[in-house]
Amino acid sequence: MGFDKEKIKQIKGLMVLGAVLVLAIIYSSSVVAGIVLAINIAKPFIYGGAIAFVLNIPMKLVENKLLRKWRGKAADKLKRPISMVLSILLVLLIIAVVFNTVVPQLTATIAEIGRKIPEFAQQVVSMLDEFSQNYPQLEEQVSKLESLRINWESLADGVINFLKNGMSSMLTSTVTFASSVIGGVVNLFISVVFALYILGQKEKLEDQGKRIVTAYFPKKASDKILEVMALLYKNFSNFITGQCTEAVILGTMFVIAMTIFRMPYAVLVGVLVAFTALIPIVGAFIGCIVGAFLILIDDPILAVWFVLMFLVLQQLEGNLIYPKVVGNSVGLPSMWVLMAVSLGGSLFGVAGMLFFIPLFSTFYVLLRESVNSRNAAKQALQKIQADREMEEIQISGPEDDMEEKDE
């Protein structure tokens, strides 16, 4: 039995795919190294896409709300650059407020610690003297150690060798650090420029992407791909908006609670907690550690009360506010939100926490639609079968009655 041309083409495609998979398994180390190299090369463009995605949210808000009354060709040409500049200024303003609030207070606290160190050292020395007086056997052991002979020449040689190795390693570390800083600045510049290009031509890029998908995939597959991409965009946008809203709510709660209980650094800790709360679920703990350390310098007992207050607010935020605000923004139930954060954090750290919630939301929506459509199809099929059985019963009923009458 012969095969037609389409079947032969499919068989050839499967053979090529199998050969590629076998080669990928044999040379897996080289494949992984190539993938890592490609990712490192594409990092500035990946970061640029992420920056453009984040900036697009306030930019759309400015275009659709603030500048919605601008009409005409001249206004349309100016609307995009103005909204882009305002969005960048908004982000820079938020960063400046955070740094101007946090950095000076941290600097003052570190200076206060420096002033208190001599007093603390004196207290430690007094405690050690008192301890040695209460336990004279320790002083005898110290005297024995002092009587030991020390080979100063070998000790000096060891110190010189250590300094030589330390200087070379320090020089290497300095060069590595400088090159990484320069590389980071260059990548940041490329990312920002790439993000501006994306924002300036996002409609054109969207149209080109749709044309590519429809050109290389069948209609049914291309429609599904475009549907999934639109759903991903919606979920990621809603997640970022919900995460920022949740961070503002949590920071405001801390400012109000610390003001009511007359704790110091209320605004500082509130801003710090709000900024670190952008990391889902666990980010606020970073702000708690820094806030507790700041309060500890002034009053250790008050620092303990601050930690207790944080635990209460964190439970309230983690179990009620976060699943409701972020979960509703991405259409994901509370249980799935916690599952996404736990799984993403265990696999990919902070980045996994940020990305797994909208990814889980997309998977949840697609799974829900598939389940509903399959159940609806099964119910329709069952209804058709039930209707056919009823028709058969209705048709066979009169004939049975006639047979009984004849008998």
TrEMBL record:
One of its GO terms (cellular component) is plasma membrane. It holds the Pfam family AI-2E_transport. GO terms for biological process: transmembrane transport. It is a multi-pass membrane protein. It is found in: Cell membrane. Keywords: Cell membrane, Membrane, Transmembrane, Transmembrane helix, Transport. The chain crosses the membrane at residues 14-39, 45-62, 82-103, 177-200, 239-261, 267-295, 302-322, 334-367. It comes from the Bacteria. Belongs to the autoinducer-2 exporter (AI-2E) (TC 2.A.86) family. This is AI-2E family transporter.
